[in-house]
Amino acid sequence: GESVGLHLPTLSVQEGDNSIINCAYSNSASDYFIWYKQESGKGPQFIIDIRSNMDKRQGQRVTVLLNKTVKHLSLQIAATQPGDSAVYFCASGGNEKLTFGTGTRLTIIP
Amino acid sequence: GAVVSQHPSWVICKSGTSVKIECRSLDFQATTMFWYRQFPKQSLMLMATSNEGSKATYEQGVEKDKFLINHASLTLSTLTVTSAHPEDSSFYICSAAGQGAQGYPNEQFFGPGTRLTVL
């Protein structure tokens, strides 16, 4: 079955610096990838997504990169702010179901 | 918009009792709803997928007789944890996908979650 995993379980970044969170997926049939942010005691919050026919997509302060060759996904957050502290999950899907990665806790150091 | 609510936001119950959690799509018709469970410091694990008017499809290892799912309308799905035990204590999150919601087709919109604690 499909698995989606993260390389780093925790990440601490100085406020104002950029952060990069990585994710690997195993199902080459996945064609839709999403990054979610989850704050303590809350549901996942959509950040940005990307289709498999793209390799890069930019949002406000966030960029998602997709490397289908090595089945790798990354989330870049620019100029991090204290409010960026949360757990970040990648998820992948090929039909209606999503498979979530293990999560990375991002801590922004003031 | 695409707002999904859950009720209650938290619940504490005694072992052996049943607990019902509601998931509602507030501004769109959810043809499909998903139920996830999340243990502390872990990821979301899909429990089941429910389509309006039909039986839910459970993931491997999820007991369908213990976790009863009903999706009787396009805006409401319920998850009932029957004969709850302390090991069922978890964060239960629903998501919904369907018509009238902004975003990609089949994009899932998540509820805020329900914290279940079984004593």
Average pLDDT confidence of chain B is 92
Shape, per Cα inertia axes of chain A: globular
Mind telling me the C-alpha Rg of chain A?
Answer: 13 Å
Order of helices and strands of chain B: EEEEEEEEEEE
Largest interface: A-B, 19 and 22 residues
Biggest sheet details of chain B: 7 strands, mixed
Task: Explain what the structure shows.
The complex is a heterodimer of chains A (110) and B (119). With 110 residues, chain A is mostly beta strands. Chain A has strands at residues 4-5, 10-14, 19-25, 32-38, 45-51, 56-58, 62-67, 72-77, 86-93, 98-100, 104-109. The mean pLDDT of chain A is 90. Chain B contains no helices and 11 strands. Chain B is globular and about 40 Å long. The mean pLDDT of chain B is 92. The chains are: A mainly beta (110), B mainly beta (119).
Keywords for this entry:
heterodimer, A: 110 residues, mainly beta, 6-stranded mixed beta sheet, 5-stranded antiparallel beta sheet, 0% helix, B: 119 residues, 7-stranded mixed beta sheet, 4-stranded antiparallel beta sheet, 11 strands, 54% strand
